[in-house]
Write a structure and sequence with these properties.
This protein has one domain: Tetracycline Repressor, domain 2, CATH 1.10.357. The chain is built from 11 helices and no strands. Helix 2 crosses helix 5 and helix 5 packs antiparallel against helix 6.
């Protein structure tokens, strides 16, 4: 990789960015991995259409089924054959977007030989930035409407732990850190819950350097303790 991907070309530690700035660089990445990792082209079309509509409106206002169907290029009947309904689609789409951000994370991580500091920065850059692209309103609605436990709401967390464990074991600069995958799942789950609660509560500090630095420091602290 000759140049860093645009998704980590931000200084989250000292600056705040708008969702527009983050969406602009994340959309192409998500669309690219969706084409590879989502086998149903119809799902991809609806997912990309929803992402673009939400990016434009930045909320659920003005985001309706007719607009979604028209932008995706399929019929209402196709939509309802694929999904249980509007809320069901939003949940599946949101969870798929989370999973695809993990695929993006793995893609660029595998191209780099990072020491611990750079690894923690890269990891925080990717997942903090990805979270900031989705409006709090959508997270709040999905969490309330579906009444899911945290691990069911965010089932992608174990895959992140698996990617990290594999990377640390193969990357020369991090091989001295003994990562227990199940323990790491617990750490990532705790970190994710901190972020989720901030968004559910509309914490005014969410999206600022406060949470970015907190995420990076806790992550680094875990790995230092695992030497």
């Amino acid at each position: 990789m000759t140049l860093p991907p645009a998704i980590i070309d931000f200084d989250f530690a000292s600056q705040n960015y708008t969702s527009d700035q983050l969406i602009e660089v994340w959309m192409p990445e998500i669309e690219a991995v969706a084409a590879t990792h989502v086998p149903d082209d119809r799902f991809v079309s609806f997912l990309v259409a929803a992402m673009r509509l939400i990016a434009r409106s930045k909320s659920l206002k003005g985001f309706n089924l007719m607009d979604l169907v028209q932008k995706a290029g399929y019929s209402r009947s196709t939509f309802f054959r694929l999904f249980e309904g509007y809320t069901g689609f939003l949940l599946k789409g949101y969870q798929m977007t989370c999973l695809l951000s993990v695929k993006v994370y793995k893609k660029y991580l595998s191209e780099q030989e990072l020491d611990l500091d750079d690894f923690c920065k890269y990891t925080a850059d990717v997942f903090f930035g990805a979270n900031c692209t989705i409006p709090n309103e959508i997270i709040q609605m999905l969490y309330k409407e579906n009444n899911l436990a945290h691990k069911e709401f965010h089932p992608h967390l174990p895959e992140i732990a698996s990617i990290i464990e594999e990377y640390f074991s193969q990357n020369q600069k991090t091989q001295n850190y003994k990562v227990d995958q199940q323990e790491l799942v617990g750490v990532l789950t705790s970190l994710d819950l901190v972020i989720l609660n901030a968004r559910l509560d509309d914490d005014p500090l969410w999206g600022t350097s406060f949470y970015y630095n907190k995420l990076k420091k806790i992550l680094k602290g875990y790995f230092l303790a695992s030497q």
